[in-house]
Amino acid sequence: MDFWDYLANRHQQLLTDSFQHASAVFQCMVIATVLGVVIGVLTYRSPWGGSLAVLSTAAILTIPSLAAIGLLIPLVGLGVAPTVIVLTLYGLLPIVRNAVVGLRGVDPDLVDAAKGIGMSRTARLLKVELPLAWPPILTGIRVSTQMLMGIAAIAAYASGPGLGNEIFRGIASLGSANAINQVLAGTIGIVILALLFDAAYVLLGRLTIPRGIRV
């Protein structure tokens, strides 16, 4: 059976795995974005606080993803739980780093002007600082998403959802008729999903970032 015949025969399962893969990455990115921006907001005013936040989230990336999932299995079991925890933690660094950099890069004169017209600290953060810091934050989200697309495949080790199951099945049955087809289908599916997500972020940037800021 060639690759195209394999896709035709397995398209329903591949679509299901693709949806689960995209859904897992999307949901974990939402959680990581909220946590990352909150951490950035809480630490960007302090030089040591921002550095500590970035170093802490960077340290997480030094742990091999397979090892992290393996360590979580005795604690939370197999399936979705270890997948969500690992993907969320691994997605934090680019968002935290870019949130800190973006918030620190806001023109102090604009913040002072907002303060001068009577805006509270919360209003300044929500209406001035975060909107101006949004472009680098969005860049961090894009980077995190591309990372998590690949890392999510490892979740199949813990019976997690997604295209990683296709890849692991192919690796486990190397030498069989469809082993290479399985690995190729899973790998190409992840690449396509990554490209679709990135295109969506480009569109989101065009819709949410004023042209003057983009330039």
From TrEMBL:
Q: Which Pfam families match?
A: BPD_transp_1 (PF00528)
Looking up SUPFAM superfamilies in the UniProt record yields:
MetI-like
Per the record, the similarity remark reads: Belongs to the binding-protein-dependent transport system permease family.
Q: Which PANTHER family match?
A: GLYCINE BETAINE/L-PROLINE TRANSPORT SYSTEM PERMEASE PROTEIN PROW, OSMOPROTECTANT IMPORT PERMEASE PROTEIN OSMW
State its location(s).
Cell membrane; Membrane
Q: Which residues form the ABC transmembrane type-1 domain?
A: 18-201
Q: Which InterPro entries match?
A: ABC_transp_perm/SBD, MetI-like, MetI-like_sf
Q: Which Gene3D superfamilies match?
A: MetI-like
Keyword Transmembrane helix found = yes
- Which residue ranges run through the membrane? 24-44, 51-73, 79-96, 179-204
Q: How does it sit in the membrane?
A: Multi-pass membrane protein
Report the domain of life of the source organism: Bacteria
Q: Which organism is it from?
A: Streptomyces camponoticapitis
Protein name from the UniProt record: ABC transporter permease
Under the heading CDD domains, the entry gives: TM_PBP2 (cd06261)
Has the keyword Cytoplasm been applied to this entry? no
Q: Which UniProt keywords apply?
A: Membrane, Transmembrane, Transmembrane helix, Transport
